[in-house]
């Protein structure tokens, strides 16, 4: 595939991942993601807003705001049990695979074109 075509494809992939990249670009949301990862180790149900607030030293409304951004970016899921909501990472249904693919394609592109092994421009 020609260099320009690859660049167009990468630009399209970046566009598809834009919301997820913005979501994980915030340090507070990164701490929430780390807490969600830890909750996967500790429990198979996920974690509630109140517990996330304690772990991140944020108010419940602040945690809820950040969770909404992560959910809208399709990075986290919520499981409802009665009146309780449990937030968790689900890599099978999230956009983490899109991010992984994007970064893999960037790496492959750079290897190919930095090695000079591509033809067309």
UniProtKB/TrEMBL annotation:
GO terms for molecular function: DNA binding; DNA-binding transcription factor activity. NCBIfam families: HTH_metalloreg. Keywords: DNA-binding, Transcription, Transcription regulation. It holds the Pfam family HTH_5. CDD domains: HTH_ARSR. SMART domains: HTH_ARSR. The keyword Transcription regulation applies. This is ArsR family transcriptional regulator. SUPFAM superfamilies: Winged helix' DNA-binding domain. InterPro entries: ArsR-like_HTH (IPR011991), HTH_ArsR_DNA-bd_dom (IPR001845), HTH_MetalResp_TranReg (IPR051081), WH-like_DNA-bd_sf (IPR036388), WH_DNA-bd_sf (IPR036390). PROSITE patterns: HTH_ARSR_2 (PS50987). Residues 10-114 form the HTH arsR-type domain.
């Amino acid at each position: 595939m020609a260099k320009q075509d690859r660049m167009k494809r990468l630009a399209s992939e970046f566009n598809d991942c834009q919301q997820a990249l913005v979501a994980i670009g915030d340090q507070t949301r990164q701490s929430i993601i780390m807490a969600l990862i830890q909750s996967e180790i500790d429990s198979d149900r996920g974690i509630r807003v109140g517990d996330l607030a304690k772990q991140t030293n944020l108010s419940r409304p602040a945690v809820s705001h950040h969770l909404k951004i992560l959910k809208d970016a399709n990075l986290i899921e919520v499981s409802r049990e009665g009146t309780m909501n449990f937030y968790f990472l689900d890599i099978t249904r999230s956009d983490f695979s899109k991010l992984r693919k994007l970064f893999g394609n960037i790496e492959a592109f750079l290897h190919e074109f930095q090695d000079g092994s591509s033809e067309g421009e």
